[in-house]
Design brief:
Strand order of the largest sheet: 6-7-8-9-11-10
Radius of gyration: 20 Å
Number of strands: 11
Shape: globular
Pfam families: DHH (PF01368), DHHA1 (PF02272)
Number of helices: 10
InterPro entries: DDH_dom, DHH_sf, DHHA1_dom, Oligoribo/pAp-PDE_c-di-AMP_PDE
Strand content: 15-25%
Protein name: Oligoribonuclease
Largest sheet: 6 strands, mixed
Structural class: alpha/beta
Order of helices and strands: HEHEEEEHHHHHEEHEEHEEH
Distance between the termini: 46 Å
């Protein structure tokens, strides 16, 4: 029996299902989480299915979360999508359920749950959910709501099909999702659209980026700078990919100072593997896209030195 068959069998057993994803969600986290929820609601209308976690203001065009009390978890199946390790799961009540299923496309360095389906070759967790639906067409009934969310997740995590994670299968699944009735052009605009204040911050990123001779890039966004533009942490996600369009940049980090004083680190690369750097600094992720944390500017400097070393080794 395949892991997908095992997961479907568990879904069939439970009347109540709660779906979680990671903190500070991106389109793939929300797309896979609520795309799966809508898929299951359409397939099993008799079941009680909930999506939980904190809402993100800039992503409300995709979907919104639901509130449930602790009692709902009694005898419920919990599914966690797009989340590499347990500490990153949004809403710690996930452990109150009867059992936990992990569906993810990040490296499985920190396994959790009773059933695990991890596919690091998938472009996104939304791609995995779309594949899941197509494996069982007689039992899992896709509709426009689920297709829209899964398509958004794939578009988000592939950078509109530009990233190396995009495969032929990714495009096939996206094509299948596009057969459903939703406004893909509008959705793409919503994903790409930024506010004026983020546009101004983008200019600051280009003006202040530091790049060495090997292509290692660094941008520090201080609390004072964020305050100047009226930006909150979640909005900085829109500028993370910007250094990648610069021809001299090979790998880079955006260091975002938090109100508590530490730095949230977003790492990206065009070639050098950077997830090992992330793992050494309380983080992890994909070889070319990861996240980490730095307790102070000294650790910021250490991470940048490691990026420089990775770029040097890559270009030898």
């Amino acid at each position: 029996m395949t892991i997908q068959e095992e997961i479907l069998n568990e879904i069939k057993k439970y009347q109540k299902i709660v779906i979680h994803r990671h903190q500070r969600p991106d389109p793939d986290a929300l797309g896979s989480q609520v795309g799966l929820a809508e898929l299951l609601r359409n397939s099993f209308p008799e079941k009680e299915i909930r999506q939980v976690g904190k809402d993100v203001e800039g992503l409300r065009y995709l979907t919104e979360m639901q509130e449930i009390d602790d009692a709902f978890y009694q005898g419920a199946l919990v599914i966690v999508t797009d989340t590499a390790n347990a500490p990153r799961i949004d809403d710690k009540r996930y452990s109150l359920g009867d059992q936990v299923i992990k569906i993810d496309h990040h490296p499985n360095d920190e396994p959790y749950g009773d059933l695990l389906w991890v596919d690091t070759k998938a472009s996104s967790c939304s791609e995995m959910i779309a594949e899941f639906a197509l494996l069982f067409p007689d039992e899992l009934k896709m509709n426009s709501d689920s297709a829209r969310l899964l398509y958004a997740g794939i578009v988000g995590d592939t950078g509109r099909f530009l990233y190396p994670s995009t495969t032929g299968r990714t495009l096939e699944l996206a094509a299948e999702l596009r057969k459903y009735s939703f406004d893909a052009s509008k959705l793409n605009r919503e994903i790409e659209q930024i506010t004026m204040k983020v546009a101004k911050l983008s200019g600051c990123v280009y003006q202040t980026i530091e790049v060495d001779e090997k292509g290692a890039g660094k941008v520090i966004l201080s609390q004072a700078l964020l305050g100047k533009y009226g930006i909150v942490d979640s909005e900085t996600a829109a500028v993370v990919s910007l250094p990648g369009v610069i021809d001299e940049v090979l790998a880079w980090a955006i260091f975002v100072e938090q109100p508590e004083g530490y730095y949230r680190v977003r790492l990206r690369s065009k070639g050098p593997v950077i997830n090992e750097i992330a793992k050494r600094h309380h983080g992890g992720g994909h070889p070319l896209a990861s996240g980490a944390n730095a307790k102070d500017l000294q650790e910021v400097a250490e991470i940048y030195m490691e990026i420089q070393e990775a770029c040097t080794n890559y270009t030898r």
